[in-house]
Amino acid sequence: MQTRTYIVAEHLFAVNAEESIFQLMGNYEPFRDETAVNDTPAADAPQPTPKSPAPLFSLTVAEGEAVKYVEDMTQEEEGQEIICGHTETGESVFETRWSGKTAGWLICSPDYATATLRLSGHLPKAALDNALMVLFAMASAVHGTALFHSAVVSFEGKGYMFLGRSGTGKSTHARLWLKFIAGTELMNDDNPAVRIKADGTAWVYGTPWSGKTPCYRNVSCPVGGIVQLSQAPYNKITRLTGIAAYAAVMPSISGKRWDRAIADGLHETENALAGNVPVWHLDCLPDEAAARLCNDTVTA
Known about the structure:
Layout: E1 2-8, E2 11-17, H1 19-22, E3 58-63, E4 70-77, E5 80-86, E6 92-98, E7 101-108, E8 114-119, H2 124-140, E9 145-147, E10 151-155, E11 158-163, H3 170-180, E12 185-188, E13 193-196, E14 202-205, E15 220-231, E16 236-240, H4 242-249, H5 260-276, E17 279-284, H6 288-298
Parallel strand pairs: 2-3, 3-8, 11-15, 15-17
Antiparallel strand pairs: 1-2, 4-5, 5-6, 6-7, 7-8, 9-13, 10-11, 10-12, 13-14, 14-15, 16-17
C-alpha cells in the first residue's frame, strides 16, 4: 500500500491504495503534491520529516463487502444513484450505484477527516472519483470552499462561471466563449471549486473532476462573475442582487445540507459570493450573440 497526496483549491488530501488504484488516477496527476513523501515506509524504518501540512482528509481504498447502514436520502442523476446514510456508530455512508449496480461504499468519520472506500469491482474508476468528490465537498465546506456544478472559463485574468440545471447549456455557452471570444480558456467543464480567501475575495479553481469533458487543469483565478443560464428564444441578461443572487448560486453547490456544520459553512460561502461577486441571469439562445452579450456585460 502506498500513500500519495494531492492539492486541490489549496487543500491537501491523501489517498492510501495499491498501485493498481493509482493507475486509474491520471486525472489527479496535475494536482499531485510532489513535495510529500509518497511511499509508506516499513514499520521499523526511520520516519521521514513531514514536508506538507496535515491533509484535509485521508482516503483508504480497497476491495470490500457492503456495510450496514440506515438510509437518509437518495440522489439520482443520469443513471447514477448516491444513497446517503449512517451507521449505528455515527459514520456517514455513501453507496454509489450505476444502472442499479453498486460500485462502492464510502464510509466516513463524523468529521470527514478519514474515510474508507470499499470497491465492489464494478466501475472502480467511477466509484473512486465519486468518493473523492464527496469527501472533498464535505470536508472543505467548513473551510470556505464549495464544489460547484458549473462550467467555468477564464478571460483577462478572471474566472466566469456558468450555472444551471443539467441540460441547460452550461458547456455549450462555455464553448461559445471559446469560439467567439478571443483569449478565453476553459478552466473546468463541470466541477470547479470556489474558495473564499482570508481577505474575502472569491477564487475559482480547476479540479480533477470535470464531467464528460476531460479538462483537469491545476489553475486558479479570482471569480469575475457568476451567470445563471436559462434557455429562451431570445438573449437577455439581468443583474441579480441580494436574495435573488443567493438563490441563483445555492442550487449549484454540492453538500450534505442536513449536516449542521456543513450547512453553516456553505451558507457562509454562498453569502460571500452573493454579496461580493456580480451574479447575473442570462436568458439565451445557443448562439454567438448570447456569448458576446454575456461577455460584454459581465466583463464591463
